Each structure stands twice: as structure tokens, then as C-alpha cells.
Amino acid sequence: MNRSEIFTVLKSNMTAIIDGVEGVEINETNSMVNDFGADSLEVVEVISRTQRQLRIKVPRTKLSQVSNIKELIDLFEKAAS
Amino acid sequence: MNMANQTSDNNICQPRSEQHRIVVTGMGIVTTIGETSDEYFDAVVAGQSGITPWQDKDSRLYSKFGGDMSGFNFDAHIERVGKAYPSDWIKRSRKLSRSASLSGRLVAAAAMQAFSKAELHNVKLNSERFGHVLGGNNLGNSYTFENILEFEDEPDFMAPLYGLVALDTDVLAVSSEILGLKGPSFTVGGACASSNLALLSGLDLIRSGRADAVLVSGGTMELSPVWLQGWTLIDAISFRSFNGEPTQASRPFDKRREGFVPSEGAGVVVLESLASAQARGVHIYAELLGASSTSNASRLTKPGLDGQIRAMSCALQDARICPDQVDYINAHATSTPLGDASEVAAIKQVFGAHAYQIPVNSTKSILGHCLTASSMVEMITTILQMNHSLVHPTINLEEPDPELDLDFVPHQAREHKIDFALSNSFGFGGLNSSVVLGAIN
């Protein structure tokens, strides 16, 4: 699984779950909370659904240290490899 | 008989003062036989059974049938019946329903109907004085069961919001957020008597002045395989004789009845003071005159005759209505051998010779037993019958039990004017509750 595939699934879940993201361009430097106003439950939902769809497991302790989408994809990519 | 709930002023059979009169101004219902009150009433009057083989349950279960709403599609429902709903309701409901349990989605669908019928999408009441009481406990059972299976497979992949959504309060909160209800709010658990107890709580909130209006919801108890097997083991449900003909399994008062038929569904009403409803100029469907709560002080599933008698008597006293004024009873009537016999005996004790002069039907013969939601569904059924002067049939009453000899309205609906109605509900844990409704002329 490559980085682009992970980003595609992540974007699809962000669009479905976070209010106001539909139709908006999403970059790796964006933060779900700071740039799109996601609440804490929406972030949990996006991350968990993405993990489940991709069958990737990332420890919760590491997820809490992520500050933007790039770092999240880095974690997913590492876990998938 | 100890009249624990008896009113202190002995003002029995005298109407309550105007400020203590509570009315129903909105109703919503989602069942196996109709997803609006109009659809539902047409089907219930026709005696159209909602019982089918389970769509997708473990084949090892003894239980093979019931009222199955596991395929309920919230978005399709809103698309079909919610054309007049405000766009902000639809937006919030679509978002919240995505992660909600089946119970949360069914209650939300019924709550939006009730609010819309009460014209509360046009005229706003003070949201901080608008309460919400949800009747029901142990609701999200299928949701929990599916997540336990997911956990067994991979703990990290269970539903991300499980820690929130599995609570009964989430069923309450989903509808409260959609409709913006900020007044007194809580769940009321009383097994199969839950919804009548929630109505009692809603009534008390308005009578006491704690709220101006209350949304009272009857929450769906989702039918997980573990619950179905559990009820089989205590011999409470039908699983022996009707697997080839499930629509005939729920047969209250009939000689061949063998247990209740579990079912899913939800109902919701809007309660408000008569003064508030009149000031808003909205249609009033019925008056909620009184309610009661009694206990058998017993954990057994065996019904308690004394508790049932007291439930009916206390509700009539709370309603300031004499037994002879009641002209219709919606029986709890679950199709269990002991339960139906006990309820008929209790009705005869409370109403005497008058019991033989009034129709006593069983909505569960058609829908099965909607458990925690049942008494809300049956309260709405009672109001619809009152509004149409038409009582629905008790179906499957092919060979009446000779011991049970009241007018159960067998087979065919019948025209019948209702001014005062009683609706019973009795739950495991020895809990009994009745409500009394009056027509608004």
C-alpha cells in the first residue's frame, strides 16, 4: 500500500465525516482540527475508519502525538510496511 | 389494597385544574408495518401482521421470527417522509444517524415526525423549558453484540464511538441534538413498562412546573441473538409451534398462545400543557389524564395480580376518572399463558361488570412485543383509535381461552367512540404502569 492510496482513503473519510470539508482541497500540511474545525469525536472517527478500511493498526499512544495529515500518513505508511 | 399512589385530596372523578391539564400535540411512530402514523394506522386497522422470519440472525437460535427492523434505512426514510422538515434538522440528523445505533435512528425518525406534527418546526418554544424523557433501558443490544464480535476479531477496529453510542443516553441525545431540546432530560428504565413510566415522568415534569413541554420517546430495545436466546431459556417467547407460520405466533387470549413475539419499533409524543397548546393554536390529539407506577416486589417473570390492579386503579385516580367512564382498554396482552390470564383477571377486578361492556384489544397480536417501546407504540395506537372512532382487531384469536371472556375485538376492526381510554404495560422486575387518556372535544 502506497502513500497515495492511504491519502485517498483518509480524504474520503474526512469529507464524509467532518462538516464543511466537502469540496475543499485537502493538503498534507493541513490539520483536521486547526484547518477544518473538526471536533475530537470526528477526528477519532476519521482515524478509526481509515485504519479499519486499510486494515492498519497504529498504537493509540502514537496517534495522539500527530499534529497534521502528513504525520498521520507517515504513521499509517510505516504501520503498513 | 394499599393505594400507594392515591391522591391526597380525595378529589376522585373531579377534573384537574386547567394548569395541570397535559395534552398530546404531536406523535411519531416507526414500526414494521408503517413508518408514519397514517401508514401504521391503516395497517393496524387491517390487522396486517408485522412478524416475519429474522432477516439475518444466527441460525442456531431457537427463535426464528419477530418484528425485524434491522434493515431500517434512515436516509431513505427521511427522503420519503421528511420533505417538510427544516433543512437544519435534516443536516444534523444525517450526520448524527451515521454513527448512531438502530435504536438511536428509529427514535430520531419518530421524534422528527412528532415535532413536525406538533408544528414545532414553525413555532418555537423556549428550548430550556423543553424536556426529553426517553423510555427504555438496555437498548443498543445489536450494536453492542456486533462490537463484541468485532473486538474478538480485532480490538482496534471496533466502532470508534462505541464508548458513547452504546449508552442508552446516546439514543436520547441524538434526538435532543437534532431538535435542540435543552430542558430536563433523562432516561427511564422499566423493562417493558419503560414507556408508560416515561410518560408518567413527562407528565410530572410539566405538572410540577419544571418544564413547559416534554418530548417523551419510546426507545427500541434492539434484538440481539443473546437476548433472543436468553428469553428462550426462560421460556418467555414463542419458539415451538409457529416457525412455519410466524404471523400466527402472537395470539393473545387464544388457547394456543405460548409466549411473546419480540419486535423492534419506536414511538414518540410531544406533551405540553393545555394552556400552551391553546396559546399556540395547534391541533390536540388527546389529553394525558393520568399515569401510575407499582411494583410486585418480585424479580420473577410471573405477573403480579395485585400490582396490576393497583396500577390500573392508581392511574384512574390520578386521572380523576371513575372505572365506569372508561370505554376502551389497550391491554398489555403479550400472548403469554400466565400474563394474559392475570391481566384479564385484574381488569375484571378493577372494572367489575363494566369490563364486559368495553373493547379490550391487543396491539401486540399485530406488531409483536415492542418491549421498551411497546407502551409508547400502544399509547399512540390508542390515540389514533380515539381520533378515528375505530378500534383495531386482535388477530389470531381463533380459539379463545374459555377463561378469558372479555370483548377482545377478534378478527375485524370496529367503529367505536372512545372518550376515556386506559393503556397497560407490565415489565420484568415486577413493574406495572398504566396511563389514562381522554378525548378532546
Features:
heterodimer; A: 81 residues; mainly alpha; Non-ribosomal Peptide Synthetase Peptidyl Carrier Protein, Chain A; 5 helices; B: 441 residues; alpha/beta; 11-stranded mixed sheet; two-stranded antiparallel sheet; 14 helices; 15 strands; 16% strand; globular; disordered N terminus
What is the fold's blueprint, element by element?
The complex is a heterodimer of chains A (81) and B (441).
Chain A: H1 3-17, H2 32-36, H3 40-54, H4 60-63, H5 69-80
Chain B: E1 22-30, H1 37-45, E2 52-53, E3 65-66, H2 74-81, H3 87-99, H4 102-117, E4 130-135, H5 141-153, H6 162-165, H7 168-179, E5 185-188, H8 194-207, E6 213-218, H9 225-233, E7 266-273, H10 274-280, E8 286-291, E9 294-295, H11 305-319, E10 328-330, H12 337-351, E11 360-361, H13 364-367, H14 374-388, E12 390-391, E13 414-415, E14 420-427, E15 431-438
Parallel strand pairs in B: 4-5, 4-6, 10-11, 10-14
Antiparallel strand pairs in B: 1-7, 1-8, 2-3, 6-7, 8-15, 9-15, 12-13, 14-15
Helix pairs in contact in B: 2-4, 3-7, 4-7, 8-14, 11-12
